[in-house]
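Session log. Operator J.P. requested a structure for one protein chain; no other inputs attached. Running the standard single-chain path with token output.
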Amino acid sequence: MYPDKLQKASFTLAAAITNSSSFSLNNYGYIIGDLNRTAYNENQPMRLWRYNPIDDKWNQHGNYPGYGAYFINTVTLNGIVYAGLGVNNGDFNAIDFWSFKE
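Structure written below.
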């Protein structure tokens, strides 16, 4: 149907990823997510994965510095990622908001 399109590497883990958000920056794709709900339920860090289109691979790329949250928001603007807010595990509005660039 789309002869010029190629299937790219799937984002697969043995664990469940929840409360995720994705964005792109500098030709890479990123996903911030809660691995097995440990960030939300146990106050562990959310994880960050990066997709490298040259290698066609996903790799863990560190941790998100904020608290685990449902409905985390991400946006990129002028080469900077802004991430945060959402709802924390007490069902209160999460107020942490972060920025980073690579």
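Operator note: The first strand starts at residue 17 and ends at 25.
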